Amino acid sequence: MSKKPILILALLLAFYPAAQQAVEISKIELPDMGDSSGTLITPEEEKQLGEAFFRSLHSQITINQDAEIQEYIQSVGQKLVANSDAPGNPFHFFVVMENDINAFAGPGGYIGVNSGLILTTEAESELASVMAHEIAHVTQRHLYRAAEAAGRLSIPTAAATLAAILLGTQAPALGQAALVAIQAGNVQFQIDFTRENEEEADRVGMQTLSQSHYDPRSMPTFFERLQQSTRYYGQNIPEFLRTHPVTESRISDSRNRAEAYPYKQYPDSLGYQLTKAKLRVLTSTDLAETRKYFQSRLTQGTAEQRTVAKYGLGLAALKSQNGDEAETIFRQLTADFPDQPQYAAAFAHTAQEARNYPAALARYEKSIKQFPNNESVKLEYISALLKAGKPEPAKTCLFSLPPKTRQLPIYFELLAQTYGALHQPAESHRYLAEYYYAVGQTRDAILQIRLAQKSKGLNFHLSSILNDRLVFFINEEKQAREHD
């Protein structure tokens, strides 16, 4: 399956009538919100459903794996959650590498934001306003109906079903085939997110925005700008606008609420500016135009904005394999701003790309001493250690990472590479299996476990682990296909 921009909110954040759905296998009604069965989905079930859905997304779209970008979007999200009406709820924020302007939320508090939406925002508060809106849909239980219906299925099947309905809006034939299979199991999804839900998300999200020290006026400003831009899109209206109809009355209501807050300046963080610069380079299909974009900003704006433009030029040079230019730019940035980890990391990465591993390792080690809590630098350092043929220190560093980092797909991938370099094939295949499972490729995970089991010299402990994981993966695959 090709990776398409399928992340629309018609299922998981379908705040509007589902008449726009391209798949009409059964009538998607608009029931009142509430507990129809009298039994709520448990937190553990919702957690499992969210994790399974996130794994399913990995197999269909491109989810950002850059640790710096992930750290930034997670930091904004958690700041908002801390000031929401459910600060103890678990949330996971991530960036989808698609140019479409879109954002969405799924079960278990998984909230994704497209790179295209981030690049479209003109202020950090605008990005935060979208995220606060999505958080409100979760905390106000607007996703409950989807979770309730999904709870009647096995977790893998539920996750696949959610993805199938999403697929149906972009590829009706695929979506219809998948949903017919679900209907064969006598399971119907009834989704409803009303206009009242949407207005509540605006109101609650704006309150969260203000309490998190972002500009409440950014919400109506961003939605109004998107609405005004539709005249230039013709038939290619951004997916965000298709699934988030922005009416004049809604903009007016949100603007009136925003005006109730005292006016003040809300400067963008440097992290926001650097993340946008990095995303612009990573998603660029025309590096010459991207370079022109940053060059035109070298003499515009504040001193900080001009520095960010220089950072973007350095990244563009690195992507175009102009190592000498990148080296010059990042050497100067690290000298001028020694306390900025992104510049130090880019300086080290430049040496790594040039295969100057002694220099790269020295730069990473200096950065780790200076920024001991920066996990993205540590992950880059581990990659450099492996490329330099130093798997033992890479292994030590991997095991020192915090639990949240050890849940990322890249962690399992690096661990598999490390054990491969240490000539321990069973462990290498084992962790490669965990990587494939984390990115929704259960069949490949099963294959890797079976390869691990064929390795020589297995001890009882590792053999037991492999057997348990094989049974688990096979059951997951079976459940996911039980309605096929």
Write up this protein:
It is a single chain. The chain is mainly alpha-helical and 484 residues long. It has 3 domains: 242 residues, no CATH class; 107 residues, Alpha Horseshoe (Serine Threonine Protein Phosphatase 5, Tetratricopeptide repeat); 77 residues, Alpha Horseshoe (Serine Threonine Protein Phosphatase 5, Tetratricopeptide repeat). The protein is built from 23 helices and 3 strands. A hairpin with a 3-residue loop joins strand 2 and strand 3. Helix 4 packs across helix 9. The two termini are 17 Å apart. The N terminus is likely disordered.
Q: Runs with pLDDT <50, length 5+?
A: 1-39, 166-192
Order of helices and strands: HHEEEHHHHHHHHHHHHHHHHHHHHH
Approximate shape = globular
Task: State Rg.
Answer: 24 Å
Side-by-side strand order of the widest sheet = 1-3-2
- SS field, number of helical segments: 23
Secondary-structure content class:
mainly alpha
What's the end-to-end separation, in Å? 17 Å
Q: Number of domains in the coordinates? A: 3
What proportion strand?
Answer: under 5%
Largest sheet: 3 strands, mixed
Oligomer: single chain
Helix content: 55-70%
Mean pLDDT: 82
Number of strands: 3
Can you summarize this structure?
The protein is built from 23 helices and 3 strands. With 484 residues, it is an all-alpha fold.
List keywords for this structure.
Serine Threonine Protein Phosphatase 5, Tetratricopeptide repeat, 3 domains, 3% strand, disordered N terminus, globular, three-stranded mixed β-sheet, 484 residues, mainly alpha
